[in-house]
Amino acid sequence: MSFPLFRRPGGVVFLDDDRDYLEMLAEVMPTDWHARFFLRPIACIEALLQDPAQREADAWQQQHIVNRWREGTSLIPQILQYWQADGTARFALTKVCVVDYAMPAMSGLRVLSELTGWSGSRILLTGRADEQLAISAFNRGLIEQFIPKQSPGLRLHLTTAIQDLRYLPDERHQQVWRATLSREQHELLCDPLLSQALESLALRQGWIEHVVIGAPFGMLALDQKGDVSWLQLEPGDKLQELAEMAASQAWDETTVQDIRAGRKLVDVELQLALGAAHRPQPRQAFVLASGGAPVYAAMVKLDETLAPGETGSYARFLADNGDRRVQD
Q1: Distance from C-alpha of 47 to C-alpha of 34, rounded to nearest angstrom
Q2: Strands 217-223, 228-235: pairing kind
Q3: Domains of the chain
Q4: Reduced to 3 states, what is the DSSP secondary structure of residue 59?
Q5: What is the 3-state secondary structure (H, E, C) of 159-171?
Q6: Each residue's pLDDT tens digit in the chain (328 positions)?
Q7: Could you count the other beta carbons within 10 Å of the beta carbon of residue 139?
Q8: Which CB contacts under 8 angstroms, 24+ apart, belong to 110-114?
Q9: In angstroms, rounded to a whole number, what is the distance separating the alpha carbons of residues 201 and 184?
Q10: Which residues in 101-141 belong to E strands, given as ranges?
Q11: CA distances from residue 260 to 20, 221, 249, 268, 290 in whole angstroms, order as listed
């Protein structure tokens, strides 16, 4: 699988008619998830059906960024403006719904069938007597997973399943941002070793949202505090071209030679995108694992004036929406 071109945190909704069970889940689910807990199917359905319109509007904002890029507007300032203008609204979108099958008012499958237009992932919790129904629902594509409530280590099993689905890339977002990549760039991101290296790097850096673009080639990433980093990516066969660009901008010969050798990168294209808001400089390069030619990378933390900052951060969103009381 290729490295996701777009990723952001997604919310999780739980529906069960057992209040004690929901309260237990509220206590044990990871604290960095936006999680909501419902006792009543109708309330859960109504909450989730508020998502599609906002999700559609958000997807069109991303498409408009790429459309304007095709007309000559740089991608990076547009993405930064998109993050700043949105605040924290996009974090409220739900990505995974976990529903108990056996509820007296409405079965879990009936609830899921009511979610027309909602494109998130679905997990069904089942009892022993419901397993064949769950298998049938899975085979028909109505649910992504089913988990028996009697499973040993249910908490770990459920948490792992949800996290995997939260990390699944949205195909529409993939298509939008793939348009900015060259064929060679896309093939690089499909390299399993490079994809894993990028995943590990994002985890170490604490990045919770990112966009990969091809012009210039790299990744804009947000951490929980709303700070923005740029990861510059340079295939080995592009180092000579970057060195020539640096030489044309009067960088000293030592720096130019370091670029040719892959010891340093200069973020010239980032400066072209941001103008006076960014001053380029040589940065220490490192090699990302790849099954083919080496890919060189360098990181820069952007000025705080270009970032959403604390008020538009995921941390602020969680603080403002961290109430995990069960909704009647």
Answers
A1: 14
A2: antiparallel
A3: 6-170 (3.40.50.2300), 172-311 (no CATH)
A4: helix
A5: HHHHHHHHCCCCH
A6: 689 999 999 999 999 999 999 999 999 999 999 999 999 999 999 999 999 999 999 999 999 999 999 999 999 999 999 999 999 999 999 999 999 988 888 888 899 889 988 999 999 888 766 677 777 777 777 888 888 888 888 889 999 999 999 989 999 999 999 999 999 999 999 999 999 999 999 999 999 999 999 999 999 999 999 999 999 999 999 999 999 999 998 899 999 999 999 999 999 899 889 987 788 889 999 999 877 789 999 999 999 999 999 999 999 999 999 899 999 8
A7: 9
A8: 110/41, 111/15, 111/41, 111/44, 111/45, 112/142, 112/143, 113/142, 114/45
A9: 22
A10: 121-126
A11: 62, 26, 15, 15, 19
In terms of residues, how long is the chain? 328
Residue 270, CB-side half-sphere exposure with 13 Å CA sphere: 28
- Burial group, residue 248, by CB count within 10 angstroms (0-12, 13-18, 19+): exposed
Residue 196 and residue 85: Cα distance in Å, rounded?
Answer: 31
Tell me the C-alpha distance between 100 and 13, whole Å.
11
Number of CB atoms found within 10 A of residue 27's CB: 8
| One-letter amino acid of 223 | D
